[in-house]
Amino acid sequence: MPADPGDARRPAGAGIVTGRRVPAPARSLLGRFADSWPGRIAERSLREVVGIELFDRSMTLAAQAFTSLFPLLILVATLRPRQGDQVGTALADSLGLNAQARQALEAALPSASSAANAFGVVGGLVVLLSATSFSRALVRMYVRIWNAPRPPTLRSLWRLIAALLGLVLLILLLTLVRRTLAGVPLSGLAEGLVAFLLGGLLWTWVPWLLLARRVPVRMLVPGGVLMALAMVVLSLAGQVYLPRALSSATRQFGALGVSFTYLTWLFVIMIALVATTTVGAVVARDPGPFARVVGGAGEAAPDPRR
Predict the structure, then answer these.
(1) Fewest 10 Å CB contacts: which of 19, 116, 212, 234?
(2) Are 202 and 277 in contact (CB under 8 A)?
């Protein structure tokens, strides 16, 4: 996205307050807001989100996540003997499916013993290596947002795998927490707090790992915290939306309906991930309150020629 040569001569936020139809008092108020820290963050975040092509990148990430994480979850489900002989039962627990969607998934997937034979050691390795396509898509996103050098793929293969395993571990931990807290008073609040803490740690660690530590951890904290908040909000929204959507899709399309619904939901999650990562980078670069706390403003600044 080419830079406007006049940007350096205009005050922050000038683009949204110079319209001739805006009354003078409103222009003054908007000008003060645009020059404030929230105003700068809002305007720069909007520019960056538009520049990164939010919806296209989110759809790419959602498709890669669907084809990467689902096979990994099925593979992990074959290694969990406590779930009995049904892969569908373990996978449904990990995804939090309702009863109707659970039945459709269990009917569509083989038993644990059959799946284990189908995967085997070589098959499991192939699934794991193929799943790194999602990690590579994340690398491209982080490189674009932070304007960081792209790490060599072969030498960073272990990073791609570690990031995937971290995501799967998060899903399994949240499943365990949900099962453990079932029926406990204020279980929803406790589950949300755990999801926020684990999500914040994961989404700070993943970009630090995938970018080979080229961006300091302190600069990645805002994006991690924002994504953790988004995870909690989406978890609450999902408890309302997913049961209804899954029931309707399962009645019409069976197990395929589960796939359609979760691909749509992954798209929403990836929109949140791209947006929170972008806004987090803007916050980290801005010489505002966060920069005064961590002393890191101006690091990993975006390329003005983008």
Answers:
(1) 19
(2) no
Let me know if residue 195 belongs to a domain.
yes
What pLDDT score does 235 carry? 86
The per-residue b/e assignment along 39-75, b for 16 or more CB within 10 angstroms, e otherwise, is: bbbbbbbebbbeebebeebbbbbbbbbbebbbbbbbb
Cα-to-chain-centroid distance, residue 150: 20
pLDDT in tens, 33-90: 666 777 888 889 999 999 999 999 999 999 999 888 877 877 776 665 544 445 455 5
For 272-291, the pLDDT digits (tens) are: 999 999 999 999 988 877 76
* Confidence (pLDDT) at 262: 83
Residue 146 inside a domain? The answer is: yes
Which pLDDT score is estimated for 222? 94
Query: What burial class does residue 247 get, using C-beta atoms within 10 Å of its C-beta: 0-12 exposed, 13-18 middle, 19+ buried?
Result: middle
Q: Is 20 part of any domain?
A: no
Looking at the domain assignment, is residue 274 inside a domain? yes
13, 8, 10, 70: which is closest to 41 by C-alpha?
A: 13
Structural domain tally of the chain?
1
In whole angstroms, what is the distance from residue 264 CA to residue 250 CA?
A: 14
CA 178 – CA 102 distance, rounded (Å): 17
Radius of gyration, CA atoms only, the chain: 22
User: Which residues neighbour 158 within 8 Å (Cβ) at sequence distance 6 or greater?
Assistant: none
Compute the distance between CA of residue 147 and CA of residue 298 in angstroms, rounded to an integer. 12
* Count of beta carbons in the 10 Å neighbourhood of residue 240: 9
Which residues lie closer than 8 Å to 272 by C-beta, 6 or more apart? 227, 230, 231, 234
Alpha-carbon distance values, 74 to 42, 77, 105, 160, 194 (Å): 41, 5, 11, 19, 24
Q: Write out the residue range of the structural domain in which residue 194 sits.
A: 44-294
